[in-house]
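Ticket #4471: structure output looks truncated?

Reporter: J.K.
Steps to reproduce: submitted the chain below (124 residues) through the standard prediction queue, then opened the result file.
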Amino acid sequence: EVQLVESGGGLVQPGGSLRLSCAASGFTFDNYAIGWFRQAPGKEREGVSGLIASDGSTYYADSVKGRFTISTDNAKNTVYLQMNSLKPEDTAVYYCAANAAGYYADYAEEYDYWGQGTQVTVSS
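Returned output as attached by the reporter:
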């Protein structure tokens, strides 16, 4: 059974940092693309960052470039999203997702598997 489990969310002050983790089971990342998405109340789910495991290519939305970093630990079958210089507008539920076709897309419909999400709240 394929599972993705996010962790690492929480409450942080503006300017602070969090590291989200996405642990996968039931498959290995080698042939997948992994995406991080977020959804704020009343808004559509948006792509934040992504990684193609086979070649290490990474992608970032303009709104997070220079602040967020995606990485992977293949031995642990885990993808991370390091989030620095957090802003109140980063507040959302963050999801990781896997695309079995192996390409990155910033729209949710292309992804086959999803985690349950982890809440990130940036507030003073």
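Triage note (M.O.): checked the attachment and the full token line is present. Residues 70 and 81 are 5 Å apart (CA to CA).
Status: closed, working as intended.
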